[in-house]
Design the sequence.
């Protein structure tokens, strides 16, 4: 457990630096301006991963991470405004780019399996993604309109 | 995955390459391609996944980097999820107000069954189509189908095919359609933000990115809704598949394939009559 935590911290520090640099180049936020924000996000992630290990429930670790972040920033929680301000300096797109860079490197290994899929699989696969995404948007739209929110 | 995380941070070659990809792609910035009435947004993250994939075929990346990259995707996604969380807190009153939509749009993930399954059966797929179309086919669904049918069954082959397809092409495809659909359909960007919770972290990032780029003035609200939708999907997604998605797919497959057989029978009977 302790070994894992050390490894997580080391990895998070590397990823954090990459994200700060991307945030700087792409979105003009100086690294030291975004540093407290990324440190908070890393702290929340770490807390979620640790809680996931400690608690017996069958919930994915990202559920804990999301819930911790949410609870910390509920208006009225001590420090919630500061957390929100600091983390706002870390652009979401700057977080996403390294994720997909790592993803790109990791999917290389699946490429040969991918090219062996037939055209039918490709067509059906695209419809699966399309249907899943658009289906949710349509239902959300109907209910939001019904409620008069949008 | 954390057991073999030991060497992860030491894989400097991988981290330097990813840093290089980030520097290059963020310098290129966003491109907007008008397509009819809508716009396809090409974001740095989209170039990043393509460059990362291309580098796999160069001597720069070995299998070792590719293997190490997988848990790193997971760990970097956790930072994204933390970002989702801290955006959601301040928007909590709004989120509670939109609670019914957020919960019910989960059923929209079943849209694949109504759209993709009929096509799969029409194209002549057999029980593979059940594995392929019952869900977006990420890790949890792979586990579910393997558990129920076994990986070498037709259903297992189907879910594996979808898994491979989604792994390689998922974030690229959903990143392209998300911005386009949001600009071309009359649906509100918030509805699309809620739809980004499809059960995959990298696909969530890829689909939310273009929404934020297209509607920067709403970026905080969109991120908050996307975050909560992802949270709900991560908790309920598997159960949704077990109790609703998969049984519905099996039922619909039986109906669809029976209809098809009937039509085929009718066709052959007429053929026999004519000749």
Sequence:
């Amino acid at each position: 457990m302790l070994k894992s935590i050390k490894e997580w911290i080391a990895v998070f520090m590397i990823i954090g630096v990459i994200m700060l640099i991307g945030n700087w180049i792409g979105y003009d936020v100086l690294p030291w301006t975004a540093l407290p924000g990324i440190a908070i996000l890393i702290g929340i992630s770490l807390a979620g991963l640790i809680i996931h290990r400690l608690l017996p429930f069958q919930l994915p670790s990202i559920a804990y991470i999301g819930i911790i972040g949410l609870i910390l920033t509920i208006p009225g929680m001590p420090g919630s405004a500061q957390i929100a301000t600091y983390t706002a300096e870390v652009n979401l797109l700057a977080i996403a780019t390294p994720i997909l860079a790592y993803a790109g490197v990791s999917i290389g290994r699946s490429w040969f399996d991918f090219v062996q899929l037939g055209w039918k699989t490709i067509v059906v696969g695209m419809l699966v993604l399309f249907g899943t995404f658009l289906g949710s948007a349509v239902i959300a739209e109907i209910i939001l309109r019904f409620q008069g929110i949008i | 995955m954390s057991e073999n995380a030991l060497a992860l941070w030491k894989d400097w070659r991988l981290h330097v390459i990813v840093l290089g990809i980030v520097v290059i792609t963020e310098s290129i910035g966003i491109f907007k391609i008008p397509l009819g009435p809508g716009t396809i947004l090409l974001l740095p993250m989209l170039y990043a996944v393509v460059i990362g994939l291309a580098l796999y075929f160069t001597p720069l990346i070995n299998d070792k980097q590719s293997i190490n990259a997988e848990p790193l995707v997971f760990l970097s996604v956790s930072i994204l999820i933390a970002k989702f969380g801290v955006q959601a807190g301040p928007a909590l009153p709004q989120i509670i107000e939109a609670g019914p939509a957020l919960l019910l749009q989960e059923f929209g993930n079943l849209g694949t069954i109504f759209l993709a399954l009929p096509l799969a059966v029409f194209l002549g797929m057999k029980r593979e189509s059940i594995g392929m179309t019952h869900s977006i086919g990420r890790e949890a669904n792979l586990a579910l189908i393997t558990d129920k049918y076994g990986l070498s069954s037709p259903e297992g082959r189907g879910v594996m095919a979808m898994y491979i397809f989604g792994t390689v092409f998922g974030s690229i495809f959903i990143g392209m359609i998300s911005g386009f659909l949001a600009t071309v359909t009359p649906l509100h960007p918030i509805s699309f933000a809620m739809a980004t919770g499809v059960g995959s972290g990298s696909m969530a990032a890829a689909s939310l990115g273009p929404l934020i780029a297209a509607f920067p003035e709403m970026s905080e609200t969109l991120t908050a809704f996307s975050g909560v939708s992802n949270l709900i999907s991560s908790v309920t997604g598997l159960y949704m598949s077990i109790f609703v998605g998969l049984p519905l797919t099996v039922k619909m497959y039986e109906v669809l394939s029976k209809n098809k057989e009937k039509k085929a029978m009718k066709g052959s009977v007429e053929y026999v009559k004519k000749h």
About this structure: Residues 117-150 of chain A form one domain. Chain A touches chain B through 99 residues (CB under 8 Å). Chain A has a mean pLDDT of 95. Chain A has two domains: 2-109, 117-150.
